[in-house]
Specification:
about 350 residues; alpha+beta; Heat Shock Protein 90; disordered C terminus
């Protein structure tokens, strides 16, 4: 026989079932939330793993970059060391080249002095003869018992003047031939050319070469070594002397013109000129158009080097059958530079 459930028990049972259903629903919600949290945590864990791996890659790349940087730094140190050694070697070679050039210039000066010996001997002969004459006159006056001291002193003074003249010639030669330090200073270009002519004039006179000089009224000042610049014009005069040796008219011309920043000196001759195509080669070392034994081929090469070192240029113009004209351009010293150079 079925057990009869009272109404109150039924209500309690119904309420209990509802509570269980509600608890089950709550449990399902909790499980769903847990599942969502688990999935979210899994995604965060995955992102964290990715971030960790990314950090590891970054650290590895950073380490590699550090190694590359260290290698680059070491390579740079080696390059800097090689560069310093190369620079030191270049400076040493430049110094050697400068010394060789100075030796070459000095050899050129000595070669010029050798060629000038004959002319200088003639030039010294006149004052020496005059000295002998004036001193002989003074001795004669003394031996004759002349009491006029002024006459005797006059003869001796004349002899002294000739001694000074001979001394100036010898001093000029010694100064030109001396291996002096290469110093540059503001100098008169006109005086340099005049000194070069004074050394060459006897040689040119003996060869009956006419010299025409027209430097104009201006006296340009250039920053140069006076001895080296004098050697330039002696070389050009020597070249002109040899060029007109067989010419019908033997003449050398020197002219000058002054611009705003440069001065140009033209040294021309009435020789046969330079064969076509050789205008540039004549400045090469050891190149010469003269016969064997008549030239070293260094004069114009040394001249080119000196002019270039002084910030100038040298070129040649030689129309067929009209001789040759050498054009030397040098920068002039500005007024401000001249005032600064003055003591």
């Amino acid at each position: 026989m079925a057990e009869i459930v009272s109404e109150s028990e039924f209500r309690d049972l119904t309420a209990s079932n509802k509570r269980l259903a509600n608890q089950r629903k709550a449990m399902l919600h909790i499980l769903a939330d847990y599942e969502q949290d688990r999935r979210r945590l899994a995604r965060q864990t995955a992102r964290l793993d990715n971030s960790r791996r990314a950090v590891l890659h970054i650290l590895q790349d950073s380490h590699k970059d550090k190694l590359r940087l260290e290698a680059s730094r070491k390579a740079m140190i080696h390059i800097m060391g090689d560069l310093q050694e190369t620079t030191a070697e270049m400076r040493r070679r430049e110094q050697e080249l400068r010394e060789k050039q100075e030796q070459l210039v000095q050899a050129g000066k000595l070669a010029i002095l050798g060629e000038l010996t004959t002319g200088v001997a003639h030039e010294l002969n006149n004052p020496l003869n005059n000295i002998g004459l004036f001193v002989g006159n003074a001795i004669d006056l003394i031996e004759l018992g002349v009491t006029d001291k002024e006459q005797i002193v006059g003869e001796l003074r004349q002899a002294t003047q000739q001694v000074r003249k001979a001394t100036e010639i010898i001093s000029h030669l010694r100064t030109f031939g001396r291996a002096a330090p290469v110093r540059r200073e503001p100098i008169s270009l006109r005086q340099v050319i005049e000194r070069a002519l004074s050394l060459m004039q006897e040689q040119l006179r003996l060869r009956q070469i006419e010299v025409m000089v027209d430097l104009g009224r201006e006296d340009p000042i250039v920053l140069a070594n006076p001895i080296q610049l004098e050697q330039v014009f002696i070389n050009l005069l020597t070249n002109g002397r040899d060029a007109v040796a067989d010419a019908a008219r033997k003449a050398i011309g020197i002219s000058g013109s002054v611009g705003s920043t440069t001065v140009e000196v033209a040294v021309s001759d009435t020789g046969e000129g330079i064969p076509p195509g050789l205008e540039q080669r004549i400045f090469d070392p050891f190149f010469t158009t003269k016969q064997v034994g008549q030239g070293t081929g260094l004069g114009l090469s040394i001249t080119y080097g000196i002019v270039k070192e002084h910030g100038g240029t040298i070129s040649v113009v030689s129309p067929p059958g009209q001789g040759a004209t050498f054009l030397v351009q040098l920068p002039v010293v500005s007024t401000d530079s001249k005032e600064t150079a003055e003591p």
